[in-house]
Amino acid sequence: MLELFGYEFFRNAIISSLFMSIVCGIIGTLVVVNRMVFIAGGVSHASYGGVGLAFYYKINPIIGTTCFSLVVSLLIGALTYRKRKNLDAIIGAIWASGMAFGILLIDMTPGYNVDLMSYLFGSILAVTNGDLFFMGVTSAIVLFTICFFYREILAISYDEDFAITLGIKTKLVYFILMALIGLSIVVLIQEVGLILCIAMLTIPAYIAENFSNSLYKMMIIATVLCFAFAILGLSLSYVLNLTSGATIILFSIITLIASKSKIIFQKSKIIK
Known about the structure:
Blueprint: H1 8-33, H2 37-46, H3 48-56, H4 61-80, H5 87-108, H6 116-120, H7 129-148, H8 150-158, H9 160-165, H10 170-208, H11 215-240, H12 244-271
């Protein structure tokens, strides 16, 4: 295993996993606490339209996906803020429209057939130095924004009505959170693909929720868990010659099942 660190692609995979973990730990926690999993799923799948847009107009896929993902996340934010009726239908329509739009644009791109698998299931071992720069900047933006608006985000995450009485501009904070979700999705697409990214965004935070009593502790635990899953998944995928993104998700799911089983067992002992 140690000889792998001599290869640039593996070093890039480790560094990108660290950036992904920061994003997952912070934004994933907020997604779980605010019950926005389906909203995040809608953004992630609709962002495939940005991939198609980028290849059709021959621009950098990261730029195209980022711009499209931000537009979609803000659009979903506008449609879902304080509007809970038919929420699943709205997100489902945007979800399907974005993917269909991306697939059609790729079909119409002359002389080039995009490898759908790399965007659907990720390509962590193909991360370039340019990708690392984008991930690092995105992680810094997420970290700085959350630190700056931590008090406001904490308030709306647990009691939005109370946050309003404090004079917090809840609508602005909600849209900031939606924009951060959009940015995070682009980072995760590089690692595990848009099909699996919602699992990576939520499972570490869901596990961390059972072992923390505050929002920032939950973020820290989720970040550590995400990085551990990434390292273990990369190692196993190398040994068994498996797809890295799917293996990382498998580790996270096994840990989730184990943690939930332990909690259920402890509760049953207390009841007895």
